[in-house]
């Protein structure tokens, strides 16, 4: 027969301080666990959302990032003429040959610190090719003028990026004519201008990448083979979504490893705390346990009951940890993505899945910490205990 | 100290609890030391830089090169003693999973510029003699099991194609902040292969007087202000610091986690101390009856807490120090010179004392204030 749950709840309430301290310890571990994974998840999400699986990204063969790539105008026209490219409403092929460079911009809160920000020169089609990009204020830059559009994550963090202001880089003044959103993706940490304007001031007659919309997204493998074996050029063809996921891997993996390492060590400490608490609970309740056993409760029930008690304390701690971690959801932070060497801003993402993982983690800690004390409880020698 | 046996006996009564609590403290301080060392290592990297070295980069951005023709003009500037240059070479070895930095440098002037890169004389000569020669850090050599004279082939990501270098030297940095995880090869080899002479990633200048650093930097920038490639010149330290700031809010993150860890363990220790004290109410009353003063009892509880936290501190902090030293850890080249420093050990020790106070205080005060008669009533 099972021991009623209310017995555990009442027992827990008998020693509130000790229980609260143990639960709070577990809460902190869970909060750090969720917080660090929210960071990793936010970073990854920003990059995952950047690419579309309907687009392909073409780089020079062997280049591992847009920065290290270089493609000629000739390559751009070969690609634009490819039969696999979708056509826009105006009849132009949806191709955007792009200039991709990093420019140093001083940060708003400390102008002695500079960040490497992506400046991307795009074609007029880019705004259609990248379906997640949307102008939220102002108007698109006009062709042939020194105008730029600034990603909305840049705006708050760098000075002189408001609409109507001029930003100086590469020896020229650029007027900011719009801000754009891109669904929380890495594009929001970029500055966009026209490729023909960026080309002469940066690296001369060369594009860094070419992005195009496929007319048939299912035909990716065929397109990849056709373009990569084309003798007129030496290129690598990536699915845009895969490319950005891969760009997130170096730092994303580092963050996840750190999260598990740090919370793993913390968890051992918290489990030790739970072990102490539960042993003390078992020791101080030995007579009660004796009575329970005399009443005919099976030792297995006693074991289950104490395990459950430990799990309940831990789950309460886990729930508190989730509450501690919730406020960080949405906080914007920034770091350098070492895979692309550019600074990217993203927000912490506390997902329901992470909260659930935190709770499960807490319960696991509780069960681990409660097992040996519970086994001790089940083995209490009845006669001695009741005396 | 007369009472040490008594305290030890008390600790020995619940051996498991004492062990678990000490182990939690040790783990917490190990974690604390590791996290703080990440912060201090990044900071040390940002601090590094000789006061007599300036770095000139392209004002448009670090990814843009500067004409090689600048070298002569820089050398001619007053106050400039020596000029060298280097270029970032994005290289991938094997499957590319183990990343390391690769630079193309002007060999003779670069080694003169950086006496911190220690290379045996014969290896230096070999590097200067052979165009396709490269030198590698000791760690890199060990990681891949390379040996002197071996040909290694890298795939260029910026400069495409396969690049084969012959390892002619193994350097050891005299300053731990310098990465021993790099491959350095000759700039003229790069020029020859690319069929283009003349671009440097950045210039390094040695100046005669550190006090003139700002003036000389301005002189350099003025010199090229109206050229197609204007420069941005600053001290080597500022150059390194700009890389350190790229980590963003890492320091804040590490410190926050460190605090959470310490606080979580405080709860564990405090709980353990309180449990021990509660079980001993009767004994404390007996001790009082036979003449122990309130203060002495207070001290006994504190001593007990202190023994636990300080033992934990010695294990945790010492463990971190020894572990990172023994494994020569550097986070795969990201954190060169990773070593738990003296300040971290001191702060860790202070935290252990704080843990002792915070966890011992409540039970100690309780023991001191215990009303004897009432407590003895419960003694069986």
Report on this model:
The complex is a heterodimer of chains A (387) and B (380). With 387 residues, chain A is of the alpha+beta class. Chain A folds into two domains: 182 residues, no CATH class; 128 residues, no CATH class. Chain A is built from 13 helices and twelve strands. In chain A, strands 1, 2, 3, 4, 5, 6, 7, 8, 9 and 10 form a ten-stranded mixed beta sheet that branches. In chain A, strand 2 and strand 3 form a beta hairpin. The radius of gyration of chain A is 29 Å and the shape is elongated. Chain A starts with a helix and ends with a helix. Chain B is α+β, with helices and mostly antiparallel strands and 380 residues long. Chain B contains 14 helices and 13 strands. In chain B, strands 1, 3, 4, 5, 6, 7, 8, 9, 10, 12 and 13 form an eleven-stranded mixed beta sheet that branches. The longest helix of chain B has 34 residues. The model of chain B has no long low-confidence stretch (mean pLDDT 89). The chains are: A alpha+beta (387), B alpha+beta (380). At the A-B interface, helix 2, strand 2, strand 3, helix 9 and strand 11 of A face helix 2 and helix 10 of B.
Average pLDDT of chain B = 89
| Count of alpha/pi helices of chain A | 13
Tally of strands of chain B? 13
| Low-pLDDT stretches of chain B | none
TL;DR?
The complex is a heterodimer of chains A (387) and B (380). Chain A is built from 13 helices and twelve strands.
Features of the shown structure:
heterodimer, A: 387 residues, alpha+beta, 2 domains, ten-stranded mixed sheet, two-stranded antiparallel ribbon, 13 helices, 12 strands, elongated, B: 380 residues, eleven-stranded mixed sheet, 14 helices, 55% helix, 18% strand
